[in-house]
Amino acid sequence: MLMKSINRRSFLKQSLLTAATASFTARSWSQVAGANSAIRSAVVGFKSRGNSHISGLGGLSAQGVRLVGLCDVDDTVLRAGVDKLDQRGTKVDGYTDIRKLLERKDVDVISIATPNHWHALATIWSVQAGKDVYCEKPVCHNVWEGRKMVEAARKYNKIVQTGTQCRSSSGIREGVEWVKAGNLGKILVARGLCYKPRGSIGKVEQDMRVPESIDYDIWCGPAPKDPLRRANLHYDWHWIWNYGNGDLGNQGIHQMDIARWFLGEDELSPSVLSVGGRLGYVDDGETPNTQFVYHGYEKAPLIFEVRGLTEKVGARGMDKFPDAQTGGSVAVVIHCEGGYVVVPNYTSAIAYDHDRKQIKRWNGASDHFENFINGVRSRKTSDLNADIHEGFVSSALCHTGNISYQLGWKKSPNEIREEIKGSKDALETFERMQAHLEANELDLNDSKLTVGPVLQMNANRRRFVGNAEASALLTRHYRRPYVVPENV
Question: How would you label 156-192 residue by residue, b for 16+ Cβ within 10 Å and e otherwise?
């Protein structure tokens, strides 16, 4: 009898949740912030990056922005955040469930800094509820749901900004325009670098206990509600496929976006290949800590490199890309006929000739949150420096690269060279990767890398050509009631 009672209560709770979720797809409030009216904002997810959202929006009070709500599934984090703002004289309401927050008609803007697997659904629910949205990078966990975000933003006429703040750098923009004007001739290769040490996340022998302060059902949301199999619930989700996208979709999305910006490409690449592995330690992480992705654009290839191991030999720390003498660990290098441009940080770009002599330098950046608020007031997506479509394309390039990796096979160095011999740039990238791993005392004949298939993309349909297995990975199975809708 007890089991029947529990099952009945669970059924009723699930039915209520499903009904509440369905209500977002059935209605849309049409409030629009006026040119001079107050803009009431709320931040969803602030264990880490979301704190920057709080300070970023909170610093725009002179522009009429008022922070009125916080949302986090960790009640301990939520209470601390509400109390901290209260001590500073800002009264906000706290929510553990975003659906309750979205019922408030007086909230104009939702700023999202949840784990990746929640980005799309939180954004779509928000615009359906009449809110404008600032969403962290990568904007989506997979390609299909990213496109649904764009469709929802357009259908409901909402302003949706992507958290790729480099787009608000005047220095980088001027460098992009200078290269596009032909000052260094044609672009030969656009290269993004994420050489960022990532240690082992450890390996647990049994399921971990989820802290009582966390609503784990909501935390998992659209993803499977699997037992917790990592010591750190929070940040280490980046390295688990169900929730994160590895460093390619974590740090690397910024540099991927800049590299694509220089190329001027507005769609997914016609072909993609990835080589990589999780090497150097055995832990509960799933995503590669060493990887390169080759996007075969017709104008020039876009190559992205991830290195998560600190080079041991010579105690030199993280090795740097040869031409990127300024910066070079997390950077973009645009190789051209007459020289190259390095983007060493989030605010500047530097042009060099082939003798590594500096030709020109650009610096400067504006506030990315302020740009978003300006777009909210003007109601023009063209005023945004990083409209949702831009974020979608750059995020999708990370995801298609990871799909190639996930479908790959472990092979020896000679076998990999044979696979990629048709591209001198891919081959050169692999040779440097091998040297880096050997410096970490890894023999690739024993610790083999995975080489993925070359996947051909129909950019208009956003599906892979002739590979149903790869196309299936463009989306995921969504767990009810946290389902990204087909018809937004």
Answer: bebbbbbbbbbbbbebbbbbbebbeeeebeebbbbbb
| CATH classification at residue 100 | 3.40.50.720
Residues 357 and 286 grouped into a single domain: yes
280 lies in which domain range?
170-198+247-365+409-451
DSSP assigned state of 264: T
User: Within 10 Å of residue 444's Cβ, how many Cβ atoms?
Assistant: 18
Residue 205 has pLDDT above 70, yes or no: yes
Examine the domain organization and report whether 439 and 373 are in the same domain.
no
DSSP secondary structure letter of residue 73: S
Q: Tell me, what CATH number does 331's domain have? A: 3.30.360.10
State the residue for tokens 């050997």.
Answer: 438
Query: 326-335, 374-383, 388-397: which range is least confident on average?
Result: 326-335
- Does the pTM surpass 0.90? The reply is yes
Are both 320 and 348 inside the same structural domain? yes
List the one residue out of 363, 358, 294, 372 whose CA is nearest residue 326. 358
Element (H, E) at 143: helix 143-155
Q: How high is the pLDDT of residue 461?
A: 81
pLDDT digits (tens, 9 = 90+) for 17-59: 444 454 454 444 445 555 568 999 999 999 989 999 999 999 9
Helices (H) and strands (E) in the chain, counts: 14, 18
